[in-house]
Amino acid sequence: MGFDWIHENPPRWDEHKARIVAGAPQGIFEPHEHRDGELIPGEWWRVEQDGVTIGYGWMDTTWGDAEILLAVDPRQRKRGAGTFILDRLEREAASRGLNYLVNVVRPTHPQREAVTRWLCERRFSSTDEELLRRRVRSGSGPT
Predict the structure, then answer these.
(1) CA angle, 99 as apex, 49 and 108 as ends, to 5°?
(2) What is the share, in percent, of the chain residues with pLDDT greater than 90?
(3) How far is CA 109 from the centre of its chain?
């Protein structure tokens, strides 16, 4: 039972993003109003398991770093999908020659401390700007 990493090109808002990303508890993500089928910014990857969408990875490149977002269906948490997404995002960043993965856990996130701890357990560290970042390993290779 592995995960499939599917690059969306072009990325569009759909019912699965509405369920997993927009359906996250208030305070986790900045609220956005999107219509079904609307083009959305950044690069998106869908994570499927047995043909079912269970999560997303998002990346936007800024000044040589990869700003990232990950979202996993709450019913699928604690099964490795989040770590899978982080590792795949690192490979994507390495293939583009980027330096760091950068993430922000919003102050309004209802589980801010737990999520920050989870990211730090996966090689992220805090910066003075309240960002979390993880150096991209050059040997991560292309996906």
Answers:
(1) 65
(2) 66
(3) 15
Element (DSSP H or E) covering residue 16 = helix 15-17
Look-up of token digits 């999107």: 34
Q: Are 95 and 45 in contact (CB under 8 A)?
A: no
For residue 125, count other CB atoms closer than 10 A to its CB. 11
DSSP string for residues in 57-123: EEEEEETTEEEEEEEE-GGGTTSSHHHHHHHHHHHHHHHTT--EEEE---TT-TTHHHHHHHHHTTT
pTM of the model: 0.89
State the pLDDT at residue 143: 47
Q: Please identify which residue in the block is written with the tokens 């019912």.
A: 15
DSSP string for residues in 31-60? -----TT-B-SSEEEEEEETTEEEEEEEEE
